[in-house]
Amino acid sequence: MGIGIEQGPALIGSIGPAHRRSHSLLGDTVTITLRVQELTQELAQPILIGECAARQLNDQQLISQGSYLLSGLRIPHTLFAPAISELAQGKKKSTKRMPPKLKVVAGNRD
Fold it and tell me: Of 39, 54, 58, 104, whose Cβ has the fewest other Cβ atoms within 10 Å?
């Protein structure tokens, strides 16, 4: 099992007639994220981050995994993996965890 992370526009909503309505998530960002997640096994990385999401993580240590032409897409995408921290390797004994630096971005409602 792997985790693929990417950032970008997506369309989310209910699609179909009322008696057969289903919730869907659509867009290039969704396709890219799925393809990135599929590469986690091939690259033996539990987490892979796409180029757009990696730009937002400017203070995190990321290791480039190279550029890949993802299935069904025409433009190669550079993928990154988080650097293994000393804590994850078991070298530090401190159990103090730093909270992640996340930023909530709200969409426009016109």
Answer: 104
